[in-house]
Known about the structure:
alpha/beta, D-Maltodextrin-Binding Protein, domain 2, 6-stranded mixed β-sheet, 5-stranded mixed β-sheet, 15 helices, 14% strand, disordered N terminus
Amino acid sequence: MSSFDPDDRRTPRATSFEDGFAAISGGMSGDPVDCCDAGDGCDAVPATAPGSAGGADFAVSPVSRRTFLKGLVGAAGVFAFGGGNFGRAQNDRTSIRLAFCSQLLCVVPYEFTRARGYFSVEGLDVELVYTRGGGAAMQALQGGAVDYAATSFDAALNAFANGAQVRRFATTGRLPLFALVTAPEHAAELTTVADLAGRTIGVSALGNADHVLVLYLLQQAGVDPASVEFAALGVNLYHALRLGQVDAGMVQEPSLSLLEDDGAATLFNAMRIEEAEAAFGGAYEFMGVAVRADELAERQEQMEALASALTLGLRALKTAPVDELVDALPAELIAGDDTERLRGILERYRGSLYPDDVLIDVDACRRVEEAHRLAGLRDEPVDLGTFLATDVLAAASGD
């Protein structure tokens, strides 16, 4: 069994994406940073924050509205990119602020939808507000700093269970962004999840989405979670695996690809729909949009427009040239020279990660809620009937 040593000073190998993505709250860095705090994935975020430098505007517009906000909104740690000027004049569109975490694979549908002009087609001028994790996005929503928050289902569910008056009405990601992978030196001996009994597994933090997911997988494999030692490693997880300081761990891309290049074995990849169906019986709800509960009625038309735009984006990104997806992303998120790896990751997963429309899959939500209870995050079921505002889009979809 490996033992994690926080004093191990072996020099970490830098990843090509690492420096650029770390500058914007983790992004696609080689370390596992996702829509992550308040229990939705991993709350370890690099300390550096973006400054006031303007980013590139990928929209076809005469004047760029993509800027960083100098100030932070409360304690949430948010910074924003404006939407592009498509279609009608800006003052003829409804302006909204939508916050989300900064994990790159979560961002893709929103930035691609913006770049294609679909928000403008639906009469919306959308300001995309990047936050340091899903918990920060939910805080911004609850505090009135933004109109909507797009986060992992885990983050929204935890907020609602803790009393937040929010409602989830749309989905943009049907699978979590994690894979359970061995340390390269243990690939030959660890070939199934059941082999992890008595081993050390690295996670971002105890109680986060990756920890919940691996507990669920262990129980399904007949492994007593008490027999496993968990190491909460935050941004050190990738390097701990590469150096063999833990036996296995829950990672994201590009950590997964880099570790596989080094000989690691992937025991379970939640980013592949066929593996999720085999393990869970279907999708496992992840990214989606929430609104304040007391604004459901007044924002009905606006939510329908937002949902329509995102549906157009989700459908188009499945077949669009991968280069177009990359070009839609803020330059700050993809700083570095390894964009070829990013293209490969998008090509590999876009068919599985993203649904064909934004209608909520209630069964996928139940799977996450059940996993939370099995992991001991709460004893009683969450009232999904109240939390999931499925009626918001039902009329528009004809259901």
